[in-house]
Amino acid sequence: MRRNQTDAEKALWARLRNKQFFGLKFFRQYSFGRYILDFYCPENKLAVELDGGQHNVPEGRSYDAERTAYLNAHGVEVVRFWNNEVLCEMEGVLERLSQKANTGVIQG
Fold first, then answer.
1. For the residues of 4-27, what is the DSSP string, one character each?
2. Which of 18, 69, 23, 22 is nearest to 47 (CA)?
3. pLDDT of residue 98
4. Within the chain, which residues score under 50 in pLDDT?
5. Which CATH number fits domain 7-100: 3.65.10.10, 3.50.50.60, 3.40.960.10, 1.20.1290.10?
6. Where are the domains of the chain?
């Protein structure tokens, strides 16, 4: 687990924490099996992962695919965003996340 959040994690956490996002409870740095999830909503079995450049190399993609397969096998849906998406297109990220969370609408 990392103690220091990235700028993207800080920005998204500011929108998810304290049930601000459709009343859903999200946890940060949530332990699931042998993995630590950036954000997790147990109610919807939804993991939110924020990716930086290290995820765009063959080893990173392979690790992410293995991790996603493990989580999917345990009924967890994984949604991934690039850090720059969160920092530059927050409303689009929240819209996509609202669809994955089965809320259907974006919270303003």
1. SPPHHHHHHHHHHGGGTTTT---E
2. 69
3. 92
4. 1, 55, 104-108
5. 3.40.960.10
6. 7-100
Handedness of CA 6, 59, 101, 37 (dihedral sign): negative
Continuous segment of H or E residues that includes residue 51: strand 46-51
CA atoms within 13 A on the CB side of 47: 25
Q: What is the pLDDT of residue 104?
A: 46
Residues in a beta bridge with 79:
48
Nearest Cα to 12, choosing from 56, 41, 48, 37? 48
Give the global pTM: 0.85
Distance CA 11, CA 15 (A): 7
| pLDDT recorded at residue 39 | 97
pLDDT at position 2, please?
Answer: 54
Rounded to 5 degrees, φ, ψ at 84 are: -70, -25
Q: What is the pLDDT of residue 29?
A: 95
